[in-house]
């Protein structure tokens, strides 16, 4: 394989640029040509494709977001859209494609695989919700961004003896809420993967107050409910001097952490090696601290990411 392409798709994640850099430099080092595709699958179908040289990825490893840009393109779910994409890849002579993104991006790579086109998926999403890997690019940075906010909110919550409901990203996965909540000493963590009871939450808040506790932090993953809705429901159980903070897209931005830069570099280099060996239809991941690849069809059809619920139980024991 002498010519490969790269695209980023779906929500951006810190470390995507580091992955693009690694793929580009590893491929050029190995004697291959590299083409960047702007705006994900939308840009692929539109033919918004350009050759990348070593200088194009210089000064990028420390930058958040993705300099190839991203866009959602539901039309790629249709066979017509997929065949148009392959037509553009053939037009540019691109023999293999690396797709960096989350679940929707993986399904795009899966569609290409089913048409016989070699594609490799790299997990890039702050939600950490991709099967086949323990961690995704961007998760570590996003968690630390939220943790910084939690630490700041704790200061004002203590000063005013308030209960703060803090909403974080995590539509279907509670990893950000869980990890940041444990690291930030949250009193309660509300995630999609675990049931909760509002009366028990209220009881724990009151017990803390009775002991003289000066603050309460409740971290809520957006997939459960919004922070404002949670605060309204909590009112039925008493006046806890509640305030709401919605952190939202702040988690996606910022310079990637060292861990995310290294993870992205490892994933990018390994993806190139797979394509060099003619191996498409694979997705890259980290399992037991080792970089591995798995069949993308089997991973998406049979795999399911599960958060470490032992962290949830541990937080219940530590936050009383």
Question: Keywords for this structure?
Answer:
single chain; alpha/beta; Rossmann fold; seven-stranded mixed β-sheet; four-stranded parallel β-sheet; 42% helix; elongated; glycolysis; kinase
Distance between the termini: 58 Å
- Total helices: the number is 11
What fraction of the residues are assigned to beta strands by DSSP? 15-25%
In total, how many beta strands? 11
Shape: elongated
Mean pLDDT: 95
Major sheet size, sense and barrel closure: 7 strands, mixed
Helix content estimate: 40-55%
Describe it.
It contains eleven helices and eleven strands. It has helices at 16-29, 40-46, 79-91, 103-114, 139-160, 175-183, 198-210, 227-234, 258-276, 296-302, 309-318; strands spanning 3-8, 33-37, 49-52, 96-101, 119-123, 163-168, 188-190, 216-221, 242-246, 282-287, 290-295. Strand 4 (96-101), helix 4 and strand 5 form a beta-alpha-beta unit. It is elongated, with a radius of gyration of 22 Å. The N and C termini lie far apart (58 Å).
Brief write-up:
It is found in: Cytoplasm. With 320 residues, the protein is an alpha/beta fold.
Show the helix and strand layout.
Layout: E1 3-8, H1 16-29, E2 33-37, H2 40-46, E3 49-52, H3 79-91, E4 96-101, H4 103-114, E5 119-123, H5 139-160, E6 163-168, H6 175-183, E7 188-190, H7 198-210, E8 216-221, H8 227-234, E9 242-246, H9 258-276, E10 282-287, E11 290-295, H10 296-302, H11 309-318
Parallel strand pairs: 1-2, 1-4, 4-5, 5-10, 6-8, 6-9, 7-8
Antiparallel strand pairs: 2-3, 10-11
Helix pairs in contact: 1-9, 2-3, 5-6, 6-11
């Amino acid at each position: 394989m002498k010519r490969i392409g790269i695209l980023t798709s779906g929500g951006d994640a810190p470390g995507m640029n580091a992955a693009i850099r690694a793929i580009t430099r590893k491929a050029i080092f190995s004697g291959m040509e590299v083409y960047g595709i702007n705006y994900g699958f939308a840009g692929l179908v539109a033919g918004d494709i350009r050759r990348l040289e070593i200088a194009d990825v210089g000064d990028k490893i420390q930058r958040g977001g993705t300099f190839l840009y991203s866009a959602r393109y539901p039309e790629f779910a249709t066979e017509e859209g997929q065949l148009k994409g392959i037509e553009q890849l053939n037009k540019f002579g691109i023999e293999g494609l690396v797709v960096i993104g989350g679940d929707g991006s993986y399904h795009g790579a899966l569609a290409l695989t089913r048409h016989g086109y070699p594609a490799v998926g790299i997990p890039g999403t702050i939600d950490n919700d991709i099967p086949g890997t323990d961690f995704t690019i961007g998760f570590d940075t996003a968690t630390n961004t939220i943790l910084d906010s939690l630490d700041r909110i704790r200061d004002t919550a203590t000063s005013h003896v308030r209960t703060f409901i803090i909403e974080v990203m995590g539509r279907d996965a509670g990893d950000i809420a869980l990890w940041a909540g444990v690291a930030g000493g949250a009193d309660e963590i509300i995630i999609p993967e675990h049931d909760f009871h509002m009366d028990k939450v209220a009881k724990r808040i009151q017990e803390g107050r009775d002991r003289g506790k000066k603050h309460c932090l409740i971290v809520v993953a957006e997939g459960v409910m919004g922070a404002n809705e949670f605060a309204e429901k909590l009112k039925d159980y008493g006046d806890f001097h509640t305030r709401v903070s919605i952190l939202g897209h702040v988690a996606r931005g910022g310079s990637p952490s060292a861990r995310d830069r290294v993870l992205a570099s490892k994933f990018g280099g390994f993806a190139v090696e797979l394509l060099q060996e003619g191996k498409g239809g694979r997705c890259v991941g980290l399992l037991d601290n080792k970089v591995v690849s798995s069949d993308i069809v089997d991973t998406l059809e049979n795999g399911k990411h599960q958060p470490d619920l032992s962290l949830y139980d541990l937080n219940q024991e530590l936050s009383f």
